[in-house]
Every structure is written in C-alpha cells, then in structure tokens.
User: Fold this.
Amino acid sequence: MERKRLNILAVDDMAPICCLLKAIIDKEGHNSYRALDGAQAIDILEAVDIHLVFLDIKLPVVDGMEVLKKTKEMANRPRFVVMTGLAEPEIIDRALRYGASGYIAKPFNIDDIRGIIRETVKHKASKEEY
Assistant:
C-alpha cells in the first residue's frame, strides 16, 4: 500500500526558515506550502486541505495567535505546531488554548521536525483521514 502524502504548511516571516522547513518536508516525501505572514497562511488554509502547519507566533500582517483563532472552527482543521524563539510559558499556554497541539523552540532540531511529520502521518493513517 502506498503511503499517503501530507500537505504541510510552513509559516514564518523569515524566508530561510521556510526554505529549510520546505527542504525537510520535501525530503520526507510530502507536499510543502509556504507563507511569510499570517494572512497568506489563512489564504492557503482556505484553499488547500492542509494536514500539518508549522506556525511562527510572531508574524507580520496577521500574527500566529490570530491564525489559530481564525482557523479554530475549520471543518478539517489541521494539526498546528507553533514555533517560537521566545519559549515563554504564557505564550505557549495561550497557543495551546487556541488549539495548537504542540510547540518547538527556535532554533529547532531537524530531527524534531521529522519526528513531528512522522507522528502526524501515523495519526492520520490510524484515523484514515487522508
């Protein structure tokens, strides 16, 4: 049986971070999408069936918290993992309350990103959601 490919969105205002995440996602064999601000992220989330989002908290135009709030009622809401350079407990706690399933601190470990992707694949396969 062929493994299904996830649609994974990387959202960060720093293009090099998006490029690194894209390279990891592509190497893992999944479809990658990138957004440099929260407004672009929301547009992609409305147009594409995204399964996993790596979401920076500090973004221009629409910040990461607002993306979490605006997408909370989506029918097929993806899994959100927030990324932050400031691992402040109150920010992380608020993101979790808004529906993030976890967080990673920047700079992140590439193996942690791979692990999150693989965990999401297992979760989706067990639910046969994609």
User: Anything to note?
Assistant: The CA atoms of residues 38 and 62 lie 4 Å apart. The longest strand covers residues 79-84. Helices lie at 15-27, 38-47, 64-70, 89-97, 110-127.
